[in-house]
Amino acid sequence: MPNQTVLKHYLPIFNSNKIRNRLLFFKCSHTGCHIEVAFYLFITFVAKQMLKSAYDIAYPRFKRFANIIKSGLPHAINQWENDYQLHHVDNLIDNYLYLILQFGFVNLFVSIFPLGPLFAFIFNILAIRINARRLLCESRRMVMVRLNGIGIWFKILENVSYFSILSNALIIAFSSDIIDKLIYFFENGTIQGFTKANLLHSKIPSNNLTCGYFESKYHGELSDKDLHFYKLFVYKLAFVILYQNVVQWIQKYIEQSITDIPRHLDLRIKKERFLIKQNLKLDTSNSKNEIIG
């Protein structure tokens, strides 16, 4: 269920008609392919988070006011009666889902909207203060349950981080002209004339002018433009494979380098376990001597 909920929030970006067309023809206009997605991400990181912060501030107070009116009790008859009117928090699923979605948007589309991590950092600092006040002062005290981890949410975070590598590789390769410009630079030694070299030219019979336009589709007869298109496609595919493997190797190296438990703490835990075993052995030997004596 959490996997389906998380996936549903990412579909509007992947279902964008403009992005689908760009990925289909592997070509962007001179203005770029990322404007719509960057605008959507800006709304997600700024507008939606501002609305969420306002909701987190206003909703507990509104809920408390509604409970007071519903019960008909005056303000603060007793402390426990006043606390009972506070907002009741029965689970933290919405908080987990909010952070998972934010993590996904930051990682999946960071190549389109590089300011996403900065906005997420700023609003998370604000969210920590708002949630602290909401849980401590404006909500009933929750029943604490001790857990070993965050459960399925960790697997979702892990899968999103792996998929974000492929997502950014495809965006860089097929939804931008970075690879095209690099290939043109290596072949010609300069970037000048790149735009003209990627245009198809058609003569206009009425005024003998030549019109240049972007086109990358194959129409049945192989030409120099078609061969160039397939060569670029091979280079882009090779970039995706290389990018994915290199970033995954770096990710695995960092995961193995940074342990869950610090080394000094691990040594103290092992020392404590050793001392407990020694004390148990000593107690066992003393009890045997007392029985024999």
From TrEMBL:
Indicate yes or no for the key word Membrane. Answer: yes
Query: Where can this protein be found?
Result: Membrane
One cellular component GO annotation, for this chain's record?
plasma membrane
Source superkingdom: Eukaryota
Q: What is its main location?
A: membrane
In this chain the Anoctamin transmembrane domain maps to 23-272
Q: Topology versus the membrane, per the UniProt entry? A: Multi-pass membrane protein
- The membrane spanning regions, by residue number, are 24-43, 96-126, 147-174
Q: Name one Pfam family in it.
A: Anoctamin
The record's keywords, sorted A to Z, are: Membrane, Transmembrane, Transmembrane helix
GO-annotated molecular function: chloride channel activity
* InterPro entries, A to Z: Anoctamin (IPR007632), Anoctamin_TM (IPR049452)
Regarding protein family, the annotation reads:
Belongs to the anoctamin family.
Q: What is this protein called?
A: Anoctamin
